[in-house]
Amino acid sequence: MTKKEVQQRVLQNGGPLDLDKFEWDENTKTFSSSEYYLVLDFSDVSYCTFDTSYNCIFDTGSDCTFKTSSNCTFNTGSDCTFDTSSDCTFNTSSNCIFDTSSDCTFNTGSNCIFNTSSDCTFNTGSNCTFDTSSDCTFNCKENCVVVRRDVYEVIELNGLGKIKLNNWGVNGYTRIEETKIKEADDKMEEAMTLLKEKGYKIIKE
Questions:
Q1: 91 located within any domain
Q2: Contact at 8 Å (CB) between 56 and 40?
Q3: Distance CA 3, CA 94 (A)
Q4: 74 near 67, Cβ under 8 Å?
Q5: Residue 126 vs residues 123, 142, 158, 165: alpha-carbon distances, Å
Q6: H helices of the chain, where?
Q7: Rg of the chain (C-alpha set)
Q8: What is residue 197's predicted lDDT score, i.e. its pLDDT?
Q9: How is 40-90 classified by DSSP, letter by letter?
């Protein structure tokens, strides 16, 4: 894709992002910008790299790499790598790697690896590994393991159902009610609605 073609895939304030506000390396398929509140529609494109600021919304294919700030939303395929700050929301497929800060929400497939801070919510498939801190919520399938670094505790999630890690410095976890998971699902639904309203609709017009 040329830079001009990429411009039509990246919106800011309802219109295409100015050409002088981003860089695009056509050879490596790398998009970089210090701008925020971007909506990026690369849903039919894989093997891209994105380096952006905060409050961005991404819709991409597989095998993408993201380096962003906080409050971003990601809807991607499999085999993606994320290096983000806090308060991000992820809706991905399998085999992804996440290195994030706190207060993030993850809805993923299987075989993912998570390195996060506290107060995150995970709704995943099987065979996932979590390196987290306190107050995280898990709704996972079989063969998942949590390594909790604030108290150096290892928790196997098999058969535990929906749980939440205890507060900072307190070992163990508590079982949670379905309403807690629904709150995480509602957050994801809200983010995807925003993507469709501000992204897809404008791009297709």
A1: no
A2: yes
A3: 30
A4: no
A5: 10, 5, 9, 19
A6: 3-7, 178-195, 201-204
A7: 17
A8: 64
A9: EEETT--S-EEE--SS-EEEE-SS-EEE--SS-EEE--SS-EEE--SS-EE
Tally of domains within the chain: 2
CA distances from 45 to 49, 61, 62, 80, 103 (A): 11, 5, 8, 12, 28
Q: How many residues does the chain have?
A: 205
**Domain enclosing residue 44, as ranges:** 1-85
Q: What tokens does 26 get?
A: 């056509």
Category of 53 on φ-ψ map: left (φ > 0), alpha (ψ -120 to 50) or beta: beta
Where a domain ends, among 37, 66, 85? 85
Identify whether residues 66 and 105 lie together within a single domain: no
Walk along the chain (205 residues) and give the pLDDT tens digit of each residue.
999 999 999 999 989 999 999 999 999 999 999 999 999 999 999 999 999 999 999 999 999 999 999 999 999 999 999 999 999 999 999 999 999 999 999 999 999 999 999 999 999 999 999 999 999 999 998 899 999 998 989 999 987 889 999 999 999 999 887 554 455 556 666 666 666 565 544 444 4
Residues 64 and 105 in one domain: no
